[in-house]
């Protein structure tokens, strides 16, 4: 609905502020006002006209009033932030925004990298030294010198350094040196593993150029390698093979000719090691163990990674070996960094406007979203601003993604809307600016590392969202730089172990004396007939387990729903998330387009049929769910302050019973709930934590419905603890689910991945800090709504569509916890009996 300015007849904008007020303004003549919140824009506009007629509406900017409300910074505060810096005019306009709160502005300066020895001083093969000199590399960085020496000496190392800092050279040079020295021609000496085919093929030309000069053979072997190339690799094995863990897994258990070549391997190099977090990393841990089993030589391990909180510990867990850490410094140059909190609009609208301002100045821009959906929606809105932008994310065809990379590199695109797929080192050419949604600071640093590689001034924007952790960073920006990501895996995931033991037996028969740590799982498979004892060895029963192995994905666990369009399979989605996204009439995003689910066949045949929706269709859907937990085993207990918390094995029963429509651009539910004719049910085993929250007695005394207030307080507390712990545990909240059991006070937070991913264990280990931060989030949120708002108690993942929440009850619960009130884990069904 359009409203006209009473002064100049231009368009009036009415926006809800983050603290539940209404901001009315005219962009042309500048009159504006702040009014009390009303859901009806007509009422707000009429009040505005009445105040204008009485001369109460400001004829100039409401800077002081907006600043008093915490909506923007004052001019003085912004100028103090700028200090001696000299930002470009467009950036100064952004900093003095009247729609956003500038949480932080600083110039990120990287110190000069520490220099190491000269190339000729390291005793390298003459051909290597000559090539480096031809490439105008006269001296190594100190971390490169250290890495080269350690790898040549045969040590297991982790190279930790930012994007574009020379990590590849740090492991490639010593590997080639070893090959030349040890005369390993004609057999595979080193495997270089990358997390994606795209990154492997992007890095291949750089590696090949170096290797060719030294007369070393390098080949890529992945799902896109043609048959004739495969034959050539098998007939004439290269010294270095470039691949991914999916390929290693498949060829090992199939005992192919390619897998037979791998037994000569002496060095395994894993680039972008931080990617192997969660379920994927748990599977990779076993694939590495399997590779060790088939190799004739003791494997040496080299990992390369962006900044992690504890890269050494994580990689030791991933490889099952002791590792040494070699740390490198960042790139040269300066980047203007701005942390922006959108107070008068959504995060996506902020990101769209930033993209517009930057591309108008011919700054090539990468915009990072944290989900497929957000990347697609951002591109849709940005295209309406006449910006030449395309989407780059997993789930799009490889040739399409490559064309986007090529167009951006050749300056035929102004911007890319991407997901973390482009955090990795794929070369997309020159980048001036990076805009990112909220992520841990070390991953932001990696994204920022994409900008200004040619020495120009770089620009980086962290666009905070409309969520609890973003509001916390608005008020505590310095804490953001302390919240380094915690990467995690769970090698003890029983479902990963159950599958991988079968794969191990397929790789090579299991001897009686080995794998004692998996003895119980081996016995289980023998009893089930999946493995057979034969001549003192354990071998696979292929007839029984072939389908199990073929259906398993190392990047997830569980069965999938196949997706069909016009009788052709166009994708799949893993359970249980598939039930939330592919129920009948759900709107599903795939390869840049929206579709509607016209049929879901579950649980019999596990497929969904989709059809296109018209481009102007205004909605997408969000499912409504119910969950029920049962504790099967408690692994460990401890006290976090006064409350008892347990880390345990959980059985989760999940039901999808309906959905709501969400309007594009509005991000709010429209209309009534839609109930499914037959609810979709799924149950699975996972890991999680449980704690008993104290009762909100003071708030309950003032309430007319004590039971509702108490239960809603626990529900809100569950939300805030998950969302508030997001960056403390390394941005894992999207990997967690939560359940609060009525008025019992029991709150469960669990891994969304079947069998467990390690996310809830990361929260268990840092629970005190999560509880303290959760209290601050609720306490500092200015909203007056009893239920709270998206910036304190709401969760976009809530299966109840954020109903039955009580902000003030949650605040009292969290204050009682942080003041040291004691609770014990008591079974609500058994009175005072301890919980398991």
Automatic annotation (TrEMBL):
One of its GO terms (biological process) is nucleotide-excision repair. Keywords: ATP-binding, Helicase, Hydrolase, Nucleotide-binding. Transmembrane segments: none annotated. It comes from the Archaea. Residues 148-326 form the Helicase ATP-binding domain. Its EC number is 3.6.4.-. Residues 346-495 form the Helicase C-terminal domain. It comes from Candidatus Nitrosomarinus catalinensis. GO terms for molecular function: 3'-5' DNA helicase activity; ATP binding; hydrolase activity; nucleic acid binding. It is an enzyme of class 3 (hydrolase). InterPro entries: DEAD/DEAH_box_helicase_dom, Helicase_ATP-bd, Helicase_C-like, MZB, P-loop_NTPase. Pfam families: DEAD (PF00270), Helicase_C (PF00271), MZB (PF09369). This is Ski2-type helicase.
């Amino acid at each position: 609905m359009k409203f006209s300015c009473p002064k100049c007849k231009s368009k009036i904008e009415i926006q809800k502020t983050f603290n539940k007020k209404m901001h009315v303004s005219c962009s042309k003549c500048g009159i504006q006002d702040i009014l009390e919140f009303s859901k009806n824009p007509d009422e707000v506009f009429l009040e505005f006209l009445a105040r204008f007629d009485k001369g109460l509406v400001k004829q100039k900017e409401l800077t002081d009033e907006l600043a008093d409300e915490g909506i923007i910074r004052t001019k003085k505060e912004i100028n103090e932030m700028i200090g001696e810096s000299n930002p470009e005019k467009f950036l100064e306009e952004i900093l003095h925004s009247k729609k956003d709160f500038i949480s932080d502005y600083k110039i990120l300066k990287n110190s000069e990298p520490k220099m190491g020895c000269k190339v000729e001083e390291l005793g390298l093969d003459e051909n290597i030294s000559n090539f480096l000199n031809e490439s105008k590399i006269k001296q190594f960085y100190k971390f490169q010198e250290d890495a080269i020496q350690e790898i040549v000496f045969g040590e297991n190392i982790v190279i930790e350094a930012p994007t574009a800092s020379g990590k590849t050279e740090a492991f490639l040079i010593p590997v080639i040196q070893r090959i030349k020295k040890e005369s390993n021609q004609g057999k595979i000496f080193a495997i270089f593993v990358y997390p994606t085919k795209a990154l492997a093929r992007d890095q291949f030309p750089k590696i090949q150029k170096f290797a060719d000069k030294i007369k070393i053979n390098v080949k890529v072997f992945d799902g896109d390698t043609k048959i004739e190339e495969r034959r050539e690799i098998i007939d004439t094995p290269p010294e270095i093979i470039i691949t991914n863990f999916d390929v290693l897994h498949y060829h090992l258990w199939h005992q192919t000719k390619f897998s037979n070549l791998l037994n000569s391997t002496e060095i395994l190099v894993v680039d972008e090691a931080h990617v192997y977090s969660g379920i994927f990393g748990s599977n990779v841990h076993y694939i590495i163990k399997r590779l060790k089993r088939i190799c004739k030589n003791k494997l040496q391990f080299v990992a390369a990674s962006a900044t992690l909180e504890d890269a050494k510990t994580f990689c030791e867990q991933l490889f099952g070996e002791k590792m040494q850490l070699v740390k490198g410094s960042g790139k040269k140059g300066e980047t203007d960094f701005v942390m922006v909190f959108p107070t008068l609009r959504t995060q996506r609208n902020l990101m769209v406007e930033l993209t517009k301002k930057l591309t108008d100045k011919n700054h090539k821009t990468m915009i990072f979203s944290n989900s497929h959906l957000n990347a697609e929606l951002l591109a849709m809105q940005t295209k309406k601003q006449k910006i030449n932008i395309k989407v780059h994310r997993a789930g799009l065809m490889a040739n399409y993604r490559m064309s986007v990379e090529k167009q951006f590199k050749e300056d035929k695109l102004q911007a890319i809307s991407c997901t973390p797929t482009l955090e990795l080192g794929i070369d997309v050419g020159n980048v001036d600016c990076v805009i990112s949604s909220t992520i841990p600071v070390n991953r932001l640093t990696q994204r920022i590392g994409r900008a200004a590689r040619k020495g120009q001034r770089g620009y980086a924007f962290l666009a905070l969202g409309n969520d609890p952790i973003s509001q916390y960073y608005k008020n505590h920006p310095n804490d953001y730089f302390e919240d380094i990501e915690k990467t995690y895996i769970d090698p003890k995931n029983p479902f990963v172990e159950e599958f991988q033991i079968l794969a191990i037996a397929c790789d090579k028969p299991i001897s009686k004396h080995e794998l004692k740590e998996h003895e119980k799982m081996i016995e289980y498979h023998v009893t089930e007939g999946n493995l057979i004892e034969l001549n003192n060895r354990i071998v696979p029963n292929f007839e029984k387990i072939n389908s199990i192995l073929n259906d398993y994905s190392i990047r997830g666990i569980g069965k999938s729903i196949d997706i069909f369009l016009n009788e052709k399979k166009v994708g799949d989605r893993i359970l249980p998330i598939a039930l939330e996204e592919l129920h009948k009439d759900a709107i599903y995003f795939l390869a840049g387009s929206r579709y509607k689910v016209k049929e879901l066949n579950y649980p019999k045949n596990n497929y969904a049929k989709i059809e296109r929706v018209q481009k102007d269709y205004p909605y997408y859907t969000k499912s409504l769910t119910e969950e029920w937990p049962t504790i099967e085993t408690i692994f460990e207990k401890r006290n976090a302050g006064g409350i008892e918390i347990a880390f345990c094995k959980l059985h989760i029963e999940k039901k999808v019973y309906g959905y709501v429509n969400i309007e594009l651009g509005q991000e709010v539910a429209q209309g009534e709930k839609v109930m499914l004719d037959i609810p979709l049910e799924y149950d699975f085993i996972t890991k999680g934590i449980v704690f008993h929250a104290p009762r909100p007695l003071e708030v309950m005394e003032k309430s007319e419905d004590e039971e509702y207030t108490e239960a809603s307080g626990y529900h809100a507390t569950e939300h805030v603890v998950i969302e508030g712990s997001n960056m403390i545990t390394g941005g894992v909240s999207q990997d967690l689910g939560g359940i609060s059991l009525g008025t019992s006070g029991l709150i469960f937070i669990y891994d969304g991945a079947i069998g467990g991913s390690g996310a809830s264990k990361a929260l268990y280990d840092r629970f005190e800090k999560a509880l303290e931060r959760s209290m601050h989030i609720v306490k500092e949120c200015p909203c007056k709504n009893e239920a709270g708002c998206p910036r304190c108690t709401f969760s976009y993942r809530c299966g109840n569509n954020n109903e039955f929440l009580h902000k003030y009850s949650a605040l009292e619960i969290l204050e009682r916890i942080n003041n040291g009130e004691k609770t014990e884990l008591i079974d609500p069904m058994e009175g005072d009996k301890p919980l398991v």
